[in-house]
Amino acid sequence: MPMFGKRTGRTRSAFGSRLAIGGVIAAIAFFSYWRMRSPNPHTGEMQHVAMSTEQEVALGLQAREEMAAQFGGLHPDAQGQETVDRVGQRLVAANALDNLPWQFEFHLLGDEKTINAFALPGGQIFITAALYTRLQTEAQLAGVLGHEIGHVVERHGSEHLAKAQLTQGLVGAVGVGAADGASGGQMAAAAASMVGNMINLKYGRGDELESDSRGVEYMAKAGYDPTAMIHVMQVLAEASGDRGGQPEFFATHPNPENRLDQIRAAIRKLYPQGVPETLEK
Ligand SMILES: [Zn+2]
Q1: Is a pLDDT exceeding 50 seen at residue 187?
Q2: What's the confidence (pLDDT) of residue 3?
Q3: What distance in angstroms lies between residue 178's CA and the mean position of ligand 1's atoms?
Q4: How many domains are there within the chain?
């Protein structure tokens, strides 16, 4: 149906006005996205983010109970809980992340089946018992937690939200701008969702690799041997074989084998002469 005027069917002018409205919506979507630019408090990089750092912290605190509940709640093992917290805070202190607007807290969750670790915006970080018990050293734990700290500091959640809002705006624009015939509308919707998926998938993988590099950097600065991150990837790959399927971790994290090259490159960049023997393994 034309948006304005007499019912003229699929005329050139009706299509033209839909196109114009679509263009305006797309322009608004881009303008809002552009206005969300803000420098990262840690890296200085200009980013498009949908939340302030204060909003990120508030969201993280608000959502932490619910997220924990989905993975068995907080683990009753006080010693394990203390280890996760101590290693996490060692990474935070060694990298001067405690001067930043985020509040880092590290939690061991009771779920013994789901191999996973994740971070909420603002600094709430979680590891399940299933992943925790598969790790052999503190350095490996530091690798997992360092990766998750990377997601917080790089503000991936806020970036995703900004992108999702942009995508939503553009999908609306394409919907209005395209012809309203069944096939035209369907094609436009399919094209819009494909564009949306492409953007989000691409950034998703990029985010993981970025967090891996950050994790390597953070653990090394805290005195942990970053090659432990390679062992973490091996643990994940083996766990995937064991179960005859993919652990949950891979739903949000790309294939560990693909990440190994990038992690090795990050370690070489950090230590071109080889990793010092003095680091904690
Ligand atoms: Zn990740």
Answers
A1: no
A2: 47
A3: 37
A4: 1
